[in-house]
């Protein structure tokens, strides 16, 4: 995993250097900073390998606001930092002991993507790829487990979308992201089941967003 993340980080740095090497100044376009505020729907595409008791995972959809901050090296290449936090209900389903309510957990998944923007009019589509770091906090273990622990996760992100310029400053935005996100969950169910169960969980959410943005 460490080698994979290192290679991905090196690729992202190469992407940044390529944007800088274009040597196209943003002076004519004004400030290189751009901000978007979106409403997003986070829909996990989940699956799990649960030791001892088998079964699968069910993770709820969340609807939350998202803020992102972009820095443009030139009119085509940019970096975007994506900020949001989501709350998800978690359940182990179809196990040998039935469905188990594992309460809820909050996810904080800051994501950094490099983007290429296709310019030439008011309609500005873009593609992006980058890295995601997901922190799990505010865990409520539910009525069965004594404790649930989620490992911090590092994954990849793919992105596509478009801006539609309303004027030189304000624009509308539609955005779709796919995060490739895996975590190990440790469920201490000693009181109810007499065991601690470990699960390898793929969350892999789709993130659909719509909002507006401003160029400073």
UniProtKB/TrEMBL annotation:
GO terms for biological process: transmembrane transport. The keyword Signal applies. It holds the Pfam family OmpW. Keywords: Signal. One of its GO terms (cellular component) is outer membrane. Residues 1-21 form the signal peptide. InterPro entries: OMP/PagP_B-barrel (IPR011250), OMPW (IPR005618). This is OmpW family protein. The lineage of its organism: Bacteria, Pseudomonadati, Bacteroidota, Flavobacteriia, Flavobacteriales.
